[in-house]
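[Solved] Which block belongs to which protein?

Original post:
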Amino acid sequence: MSKVAIENIGDDLGAAVARIFERTIPGSDLIKSSGEVYLKPNGSDFKPYCYTDPDVVEATIRYFYDAGATQVFLMENSTQGNMTRVVFEFTGYRDICRRTGAKPIYLDEQPSEAVALPHFEDSVEFPKLVMEKFVRRRDQHTYVSLPKLKTHSMSTITLGIKNQMAFPRHADRGRHHNHELHRWLADFFAVVKPDYTLIDGVHAVFNGHYPLGTFLEDSIEKLDILIGGADTVATDTVGAKVLGYDIDEVKHLALARDDGKWRVSKVNGQPTTRPYWKDRFEVLPGGRVRELPEADALYRNDGNGHFAAIQAQPGVFLDLKVTHLQGSEAEYLTEGDVILVNNVPVFNASQSETDLTTYEVGVVLTF
């Protein structure tokens, strides 16, 4: 069972960071053989409230050093043509690295390699460092996602899974940054997964991922919370709920939950979580939907119109049925009952009762 914690920050951010790890999985248990910890904040831009709070970033760096990390790295690939090293200067991330000894990694300056995605014919270029450290040598290096608690105009929310949008190189980002974005994000998650996701909820950001200065009061809410867990899907689900969304309203999150498999979420406008529709449909390869048969059930009639469900146990059930239908006298014709007398047809009808009695025997085997 996945464990996700929400922690009030209070007056001591460092202590809050330590508490949330202790409540879920201690940092010392997350650190692997290399001793290296790679933190990925949301540093997409330096506009107000659109990036992970620097104090949360610094507190997390210090926590992992205290937990035994030999080296902490702070990595990002900023968006919309921003140079990451410039964003690090304006957000204060570069100063944090100087103070703490963490090393910045500008992913937009790193060599890349082609990565195949499960649901797309075209490959995407990820930094070689990402593939080497977090895929091929995942057992040696720790990768922690530090997203900010905020909504997004295209992906609904931008938390742990969306935070990996930093991995494609800039030249690749526009190709599926459209109606296929959710599917793309879920495929990224199928390739690379954080070891831990810690959501910065100092402020929650609504009305999109770039809060407009004119409407700033309507776009942010100071919450002073942290949300954390080792399961990114579960942690994002809690974060989405705080922002007002259920998991099925965030398509990439629902896709990641289902391990990248499509699922039927509504039938005739009704959610498939309702008992009548639950577990009735599956999506086949190629996108076709198959409706599954309803499960059979066996009930015993006590003779008074009351039925009790019978549990599926090995056995033999015998069902006997006799039906009697009482009818009236009927006339009918058989062969030879019509004769001609002086070229005039004469009918000699037969008569019979129409009572009907049927006997039915049924056998049910359960095993």
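(Second protein starts here: sequence line, then its structure tokens.)
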Amino acid sequence: MSTAREPICRKGKIRLNPKDPEAYAQRGYAFATVGLLKQAVPDFTEALRLSPEGPTAVHALINRGFAYEKFGQIDKALADYNEARRLDPKSALALEHRAGIFAQQDKLTEALADFNEAVALQPGVAEIRLNRGIIYEKMSRLDKAIEDFNEAIRLSPNYPEAYVDRARAYKTKGLVAEAEADLAKARELRKAPRP
């Protein structure tokens, strides 16, 4: 019988092959998705010990970095994101997470640089556009922020956060009617049933 501490889908796989880094990475991810970050970190670390290079390592580093962030261990999180970028220079996800830390530290220029690179790598991801727009907004570059919010909405028209963030930028610019329309749209989207 499985317990919350040991998801059954990975417990058996690790028992069958205790040297499978992907099994540890997947079990760590399973722990993380249910909020058991303290149990996730050792699995990510073991996956990295077994396979310090390649896609499994990149995912384990990003996921362990996320856990470190949640624990407030920012230096460790940044180290993991930087290592993930070294292993996979095209990892937009590592850039996004690192940019998030820079934004929290008010290192807006560094955050913007990472988001710019992430957009170049994955121009069709609404969340990256939204987050870069927030950085532009914090930098008082409202027209650029609104451009990114517009693009996030174009890419994902049912993304209420994009409407809320654009409304805030509109309001700051004194465009009250546009801001109110966006807030109404966000409320409507939040009430709509999810598919």
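Accepted answer:
You had them paired correctly. Confirming on the second one: The domain at 1-89 is CATH 1.25.40.10 (Serine Threonine Protein Phosphatase 5, Tetratricopeptide repeat).
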